[in-house]
Amino acid sequence: MVASAPVTDELPDSPFHTVGTDHITVWGSNEADTIEFYRDLLGMPLVLKQPNLDDPSQTHLFFDTGDGRILTFFVSDNRPSNRGPQRGGIGAVHHLCFSVEPEHYRDIMAALEERGIGYNVFDRGIFHSIYTTDNNGLVIELSADKYEIPGERRGEILVEAQRLREADDAEYAKDEHLRQAIENLGLEVIPNDLPDAATGVGSID
After folding, report:
1. What is the pLDDT of residue 3?
2. Phi and psi at residue 112, in whole multiples of 5°?
3. For residue 86, what is the DSSP state?
4. Mutual orientation of helices 154-168 and 175-184 as an angle, nearest 10°?
5. Contact criterion met (CB below 8 Å) for 28 and 93
6. What was the pLDDT predicted at 1?
7. Which of the four, 28, 44, 132, 200, has the lowest number of CB atoms within 10 Å?
8. Which of 145, 37, 127 is nearest to 82 (CA)?
9. What average pLDDT values come out for the chain (205 residues) when binned by 10 residues?
10. Torsion of the alpha carbons at 22, 24, 25 and 27, rounded to the nearest 10
11. Dist. CA 101–CA 110, nearest whole Å
12. Residue 165: predicted pLDDT
């Protein structure tokens, strides 16, 4: 039986270590619908556009997700968008999650409503999320921190929240675990103004 993997922010003893996410590439539908959703709604600048080097009949769109990390799409004008559900399975993408500023949370919900795009809002215990779908039915999560968390301490805080969750024998890391983790690491607990919401446990397949 494989031993349970420890949760830690320390680098593993592996042959090498990645240093960040460069880009993620998705099979998209067409250029117009993809740009309308990712640039015009989510606000990601279109920073590069060129042929797909493996198949020049397709176009390769590059969007900056907000911190220099890139999301790209292979698109073709003969592929219509389809908001139907995605097919799951091993190796499939379940969803993509992007960070948003807490102060823009209600503006995001209003923008989705204005465009007739459905969404759900959940309090996920250690973060707060809006779930929606893109023009092809891919689940998109827009996540906001419930508390101010220094980026360089995020892993450390989550590891401490995990320790507290296990000590409580809790099913998942909850708000109280996150608050206590921040305090235990000597940081000020500063909550962000986010709407009340259900946990949504079991709501997303």
Report:
1. 62
2. -65, -45
3. P
4. 120
5. no
6. 43
7. 200
8. 37
9. 76 89 95 97 96 96 95 96 87 92 93 95 93 95 94 93 95 94 96 90 60
10. -170
11. 15
12. 95
End-to-end C-alpha distance for the chain, whole angstroms: 28
What length is written for the chain?
Answer: 205
Residue 1 three-state SS? coil
Determine the Cα–Cα distance for residues 38 and 96; give it in Å rounded to an integer: 12
The C-alpha atoms of residue 24 and residue 7 are separated, in whole angstroms, by 25
Nearest alpha carbon to residue 26 among 81, 100, 99: 81
What single string gives the DSSP state of each residue in 5-34? Answer: PPP-SSPPS-S----S--EEEEE-S-HHHH
Return the pLDDT at 55. 95
Integer Cα distance of 158 and 51 in angstroms: 40
So what's the pLDDT on residue 203? 57
Cα separation, 184 vs 168, whole angstroms: 16
Q: Rounded CA gap, 189 and 181, in Å?
A: 10
Q: Identify any residues that bridge with 132 across adjacent strands, giving them in sequence order.
A: 140
Residue type for position 183: E
User: Which pLDDT score is estimated for 200?
Assistant: 77
Contacts of 159 (CB under 8 A, 6+ apart): 7, 8, 9
- Domains defined along the chain, listed by start: 21-78 (3.10.180.10), 94-147+191-205 (3.10.180.10), 151-184 (no CATH)
Q: Are strands 139-144 and 128-133 parallel, antiparallel or unpaired?
A: antiparallel
At 201 the pLDDT is 77
Q: Read off the amino acid at residue 109.
A: M
